[in-house]
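Chain A, query sequence.
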Amino acid sequence: VQVVESGGGLVQAGGSLRLSCAVSGPFGRILTIDWYRQAPEKEREFVVIDNWNDDITNYAAFVKGRFTIARDTAKKMLYLQMNNLQSDDTAVYFCKTVIKYHDYGKDYSYWGQGTQVTVSS
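Chain A, predicted structure.
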């Protein structure tokens, strides 16, 4: 299973970026695709968890309506649209997926390598 992020970059405060996460590989089904981020010298924190099983999306409180996700189930991709970015949003953004190989099997988690988002003030 491969998880590949793209779309990071440098943006001025107040600007926008759209991150993409592509999941591929031989597996049964996706349970969730999630975005996390890790700022320098800070712990990794969740940004959004998108549950493909229950069609429920949970955003971290700090998102405050600035970030939204879009799902492409056919392509197995999740997009994170980030608006009104601030310097506190500077971090490496990671995508994680939880999948099942078989319906009654275990859950497996896979992480991408991350994409850097830098917001200049």
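Residues 13 and 71 are 26 Å apart (CA to CA). The longest strand covers residues 29-38.
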